Amino acid sequence: GAGVSQSPRYKVAKRGQDVALRCDPISGHVSLFWYQQALGQGPEFLTYFQNEAQLDKSGLPSDRFFAERPEGSVSTLKIQRTQQEDSAVYLCASSLRGISYNEQFFGPGTRLTVL
Amino acid sequence: AQTVTQSQPEMSVQEAETVTLSCTYDTSESDYYLFWYKQPPSRQMILVIRQEAYKQQNATENRFSVNFQKAAKSFSLKISDSQLGDAAMYFCAYRSREGGNKLVFGAGTILRVKS
Lengths: 115, 115
Prior knowledge:
The complex is a heterodimer. By secondary structure, chain A is an all-beta fold. Chain A contains no helices and eleven strands. Chain A has strands at about 5, 10-15, 20-25, 30-35, 45-50, 55, 65-70, 75-80, 90-95, 105, 110-115. The model of chain A has no long low-confidence stretch (mean pLDDT about 95). Chain B is an all-beta fold. Helix content of chain B is about 0%, strand content about 50%. In chain B, strands 2, 5, 6, 10, 11 and 12 form a six-stranded mixed beta sheet that branches. Chain B has no helices and twelve strands. The interface of A and B includes residues 42 and 93 of A.
C-alpha cells in the first residue's frame, strides 16, 4: 500500500478483555514504532522494532502490553486485561532505516475505548 | 531524559496572515533533530519540517519556516500566508542522533484559521 495502515480504526473493549491492534508498515521499511496518544496530548513512545528485533520496549507501561513483529513486516500490539486508563489512540509509524534523520510515516491510528 | 514543551494550547490566525507556534526543549545532547508534525482531525500525523541541530541555517519548506535558537533550546514554527487547510494540531518533536530513534513529542498546539 501507499502508506501505513492500521486496523481496526476503532475498538471498544470491556474492562478485562484482551485486544490486538494491527499495523501494516510501508513496504520495505525496516523500522517500526508504536506510540500511545491520550486525548488532547502528544504521542508517547511505546516500543521500537528494527526488522523483527524489538530493540526498545522501554515505553511499554506494564507487562500487560506486548508487541511483536515476527517476520519483520506486520506488527501487532496486544493489551491483556484492558483497563480504563488504556483508553487512547495507538499510533504506528514506520521508517526506511533506523537512522535518526529518516522520516517516520504515521498510520491513522486505532482509537481504543475501554468501558 | 529529553522533554519538549509547547506553551500555547491554542492559537488563532486570520486567513492569509502569519502565525508563530512556540516550542522549547530540554536536552544535554549536542547533536539531535527537531521536527514539526501536523495532525489534522483525521488523525494522520504528517511531517511539516525538520531541522538538524548541527545546521545553523533555519529550515524552510514553502510557507513553513523555523526559528531555531540552539543556545536557548527554542524551535518555533512560522506559518506564512495561512490557509484554511493549515487548521490542525501541531506537535513539536525531538529525536536523538545517537542512542535511539524514538520521537519525544510536546503536548501540541491547536491552530484555528479564521476566514
